[in-house]
Design brief:
Strand order of the largest sheet: 2-1-3-4-5
Radius of gyration: 14 Å
CATH architecture: 3-Layer(aba) Sandwich
CATH class: Alpha Beta
Number of helices: 5
Bound molecules: ligand CA2
Shape: globular
Largest sheet: 5 strands, parallel
Number of strands: 5
Order of helices and strands: EHHEHEHEEH
Structural class: alpha/beta
């Protein structure tokens, strides 16, 4: 059984506590449950993580890369949060591992502030999703199933 990594970056642990107009009212625990259901539907194992630390996210991408080499990775769904707009390190980690990665944003970053319009993740990603809300995570799992 292949594994889907779902990696969540800084402040996504606050999901559901503030800014419901932007991010909805579901919590990160709800997101995990949604991903569990979607992975069960498609026959994937789930590795679900959140970190506020850039280097920890880089380490998680490297772990996903090891599974990729072993043929045991379905792909990675990455919501890098604000690191999307700043992190060359995450860009390099994705490129360096050769993993299949979907960049995901809950909100439509292109309809928001200009500083959210640029992504260091997008050039290294297989696909980009933004603005589908929390249900986007389940859509991303389904998309990975279609890529196997
Ligand atoms: O739309 C997304 O998923 C984002 O990746 C979320 C990031 C933001 O920096 C990106 O531009 C777009 C922010 C995540 C913080 O989430 C919070 C949720 C509730 C309360 C406070 C922060």
């Amino acid at each position: 059984m292949k594994t889907v990594f779902v990696l969540n970056g800084p402040n996504l642990n606050l999901l559901g506590t503030r800014e419901p107009a932007v991010y909805g009212s579901q919590t990160l625990a709800d997101v995990r449950q949604l991903c569990e259901q979607a992975c069960a539907t498609h026959g994937f194992a789930l590795d679900f993580r959140q970190s506020n630390h850039e280097g920890v996210l880089v380490d998680s991408l490297h772990e996903a890369g090891i599974l990729h080499v072993q043929g045991a990775l379905a792909g990675v769904i990455l919501n890098a949060g604000a690191y999307t707009h700043t992190s060359v390190a995450l860009h390099d980690a994705i490129k360096g591992t050769g993993i299949t990665l979907i960049e995901l944003h809950i909100s439509n970053v292109h309809a928001r502030e200009a500083f959210r319009h640029h992504s260091y993740i997008s050039p290294a990603a297989k696909a980009v999703m933004a603005g589908f809300g929390v249900p986007g995570y389940a859509l991303a799992v389904a998309a990975l199933a279609g890529m196997q």
